[in-house]
Amino acid sequence: MDKAKQGRVVVIAGPSGVGKGTVIGALKKLRDFRVSVSHTTRGIRPSETKDVSYHFVTREQFRALVDEGLMLETTCYQGNYYGTSRTAVEDALALGEDVFLDIEVEGAKNVRRAFPDAVEFFLLPPSMEELERRLRDRNSGEDEPTIQGRLAQARAEIACAPGFDYIVVNGTVAQTAAEIDACLKAHALRAGERAPLVERLLAGENITL
Question: Is the domain covering 3-36+97-202 a CATH 3.40.50.300 domain?
């Protein structure tokens, strides 16, 4: 398949509570893409919808998916397992659709191994205080040790941000989505992405877009 017609993998990573899902929702208003729905062994939250927010599975079901080689990436976070379906991603790409992944740092590393051309964004909170506020608001039922564990995990993940293609501070959702959209538009104009246009032009084809 012509590379220009293939979809691409876009990773949106960042610490828990930074707003990855909310930003992806805002991006859907700016461009067309498919959102990969991850599998998880954690319990469903009151604000979530089964098979929309996540595919909620048991540990046994998750292990079976891994053993069958059906997971693109997996990671363990706060004692629960998360993973991305390899088949769902590959099927979308084959149809020419861009696929956005809302995943953790370790999962992003595994995706990069499978898809070296993936475009990876890391979302930063405007401050650690704001991240803590968001975590407490979202996970109001969790005890203090769990919240502190999430904050410690967040600091470790934030330290990995320089290894991503782009770093965006999620202050306001609309601005963050606009910045990611602009980065993706610029990314598509890179010489490596547009090399096929040169070949087509030299072959005498009209490449007016």
Answer: yes
